[in-house]
From TrEMBL:
<dbReference type="GO" id="GO:0016747">
    <property type="term" value="F:acyltransferase activity, transferring groups other than amino-acyl groups"/>
</dbReference>
<protein>
    <submittedName>
        <fullName>GNAT family N-acetyltransferase</fullName>
    </submittedName>
</protein>
<dbReference type="Pfam" id="PF24553">
    <property type="entry name" value="Rv0428c_C"/>
</dbReference>
<keyword id="KW-0808">Transferase</keyword>
<dbReference type="InterPro" id="IPR056935">
    <property type="entry name" value="Rv0428c-like_C"/>
</dbReference>
<feature type="domain" description="N-acetyltransferase">
    <location>
        <begin position="194"/>
        <end position="324"/>
    </location>
</feature>
<dbReference type="InterPro" id="IPR016181">
    <property type="entry name" value="Acyl_CoA_acyltransferase"/>
</dbReference>
<dbReference type="InterPro" id="IPR000182">
    <property type="entry name" value="GNAT_dom"/>
</dbReference>
Amino acid sequence: MLQEQDVGHRIVVRRIVGSRAGRPVFSDALGELVELTETHLEMTTRQGRLRVPIAEVHRAKRVPPTRRPTADAVVELELAAEEAWPAPVRGRLGDWLLRSADGWTGRANSALPVGDPDRPLPAALDAVERWYAERGRPAIVNTPLPLAAPVGAELDLRGWDSRPLVLVQTVPLADLTAPGGRVARAATAAAPAVELTAAPSEDWLTVTVGRKGGLPDAARHVLTAVGQVRFAHAYDGDTLVGVGRGTVTGAGRWLGLSLIEVLPEARRAGVAVAVIGALAGWAGRAGATDVFLQVEQRNAPAVTLYRTLGFTTHHTYRSRVAPS
């Protein structure tokens, strides 16, 4: 049976919902345990909040941690993320993607080695180096792990540098948006109102420029050239105190969160949670079912916030950079 330390974990509950021909009828529910008392348990499921009297619980247990995702699941999510961050200049090397955006962000200026490059691995990496050299850019390869471990091993032999590890994290959308779900529980009374727009305001871009160090023309393409995209503006009075960007990609399944930023003077007041909640609500109405984001492992405050909201690491990647 469940215990107090199971609160906050995913559980499965078999409950008695009736009887037929003198035998009990059972129904199973899967979700996160949010409350456990002597009289009832309460959990958040994909369908919303569920309260079950203890007398109706036939069996309940914690769900073991999710196993490592399959290669197909990693490719699916990587392609949804690529669709959410589209570089204006693109090429292909078999299934591999080559991307360039005037140097604005590593993701939009890197090769994505998923699938078959239609040639031996050393020749494929030679071709990547030539493609970026022709554009006057350093060659960068994003290596989703463990899927692209062979690519990483070859780059090690070539002496390529490695940037900090990035966590690709996910959570079911319903875990955020359900009544009493994680966003509601993490919200604060002082959280500001959030406005969603189809295009970024100049103030929004100013905050982003401060974070990313400049805004070339290619950046506007990366930010806006997505079929379903919203820009979140959190205001304290007339002052913009927080921003964020949300996209729906991957055949409508995935909400991608990016550029969540809160001005220093407004931090620890629930601004980021409000921004994420607003984007999650929009994506839910658009039909999305899951959420992803990318965050550097060393960014402890952000990682802690996302853990609070239920995000777990789906897979990781490293950006590998050719020697100067």
